[in-house]
Every structure is written in C-alpha cells, then in structure tokens.
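Record minuted for completeness.

…
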Amino acid sequence: MADTPWQGDACSLVDAFRRGERSPVEEAEACLAAIERSALNAFCFLDGDRALDLARQADVARPFGGVPIGVKELEPVEGWPYSEASLVFADRTATHTATVFERLTDGGGAVPLGQTTASEFGGLNVSVTRIHGVTHNPWRHGRTAGGSSAGSASAVAGGLVTLATGGDGGGSIRIPAGYNGLLGMKGTYGRIPRGPHTMVRPNTVVLGCLARSVRDAARYYDVTAGYHPTDPTSLPSHGAWEAGLGSNDLRGLRTLVDPGLGGVPLHPGVEALVREAAATRRL
C-alpha cells in the first residue's frame, strides 16, 4: 500500500495506473487513510466500502479510471446524506443522483470517496458551518479555505485527493481555488448540466472542479460537459477540451490586471506579489 495519496495531478495518476506503477485500490486505501488522519475537516461523509468496491472494478482506460475524488456535499448522490450543509436538513438522504456525478463515475471511471464540506446552501465564501464546523486551509491551520467549495479545495490542496467537484455562482470555485493555490475555472452557464432536477434559478450557478492542473480541468469538461435532456439550459460540448490545450495563439492579446477590482482591498504584500507577477508576465 502507498504511504500517501498521489501528489501529482489526476491525469498523471491515470498514467501511473496504466503503467502498472500504482493500483486504484492502493490509491483509494491511501486516500481513505489520509482523510481519517487529517485535521483539515475537508470531508463530512465517507463511503469507504463503496469506494473500495469501485476501485477493484476500475477501468483505467477511462479518462479518470480509478481516480479517487471528493464530491461537494451540495451535489446529491442517492443514498448519501443531503443536508446541503444545513442543520435544517441534517437527517435528509438524497433520493436521486446528480447528472454530473453519473458522468464522472460511469463514463469517466472516477471513484467517489465521499462528500466534501461546503458553505450552508452555498451561500457564503467562508469555510465554517453549524453542522460540520470549521474546514481548515491546508497552508495554515485556522485560516479559511474559502467557499462555498471549501472542502473540495482543502482536500485537493491538502493532498487527500487529486480532484474534487465544485460549483460556482459568485466565486464558489474561484475563491477557494485562489485561497488554496489550485486551478479553479468558472465555465459558461449550462456547459455542465445540473440535472436531473434542474434549478434554473439562480442562473449564475455553474458546475466544475477544484484541480491541480489545467489539463485536469480540461479533462473534467470532456467527461462532464454536454447537453442533457433533464436540463433545458444545458449546452453542447465539442468534447476536445484537453486535446485543444496549447492550440490557441495568444500573441497580441492583452490582459487587464486590477488588484482592487470590485472594491475589495488586498493586503499590501499580496497586492505587491500580484503586480510583480503581472509585470514579469507570469500570470
């Protein structure tokens, strides 16, 4: 058994599986053990027996074949708790499964370990709830992991899993990604369907992931994006997000960098780093 979970990105883990350097069962066991030892409080529910059973059957030829993942607790999975991070629904169990989860596991081959903590109903950008307590930032215990996809970001940055699901209405992927040093992209509304019981309001919420690399996010879109009949707002997908990486000519394009955008003041040290990075073209 591996001593620790894989510390690279999900794509490289799949490559290691295919080369026979690591096994899905070995990885699932390492992740579950790390979660149990962790003080991050990034997971609020584990389904270890199911995860190990799926790992034994994993098809590593699939895009995320055998990769253990965390699932944001706001996404329903039949049979799992469905509190939406609120004491109001503390005893509720999901009776249906999100389309994105089915695509990740059925087509993508991912192995879900359990639920990652979120802000109550996804409404705040901090990592604390009455029902689950505080989720910590792995870079500094006691500091916020952001929100609302707090547990997903903490788990991926903290070395517990290589990939976790997220959702973003007003920064709920981007904020925790920024706070934890990860890649977090808010895509086009409807690109990843929100079925099977779609809420068309608010129409700012998109689904995505917390990832360690651009190619992981691109592969995630390849697996999960695309029209679904249960979501009338869903959009088609060309299915070549990963294949298209590096194919766009960015010469002549300019980027606006405004550290104070939105009127939110930054710590002087943080602002200085942002400006330095922009000046040296490292953004």
Notes: The chain has eight helices and nine strands.
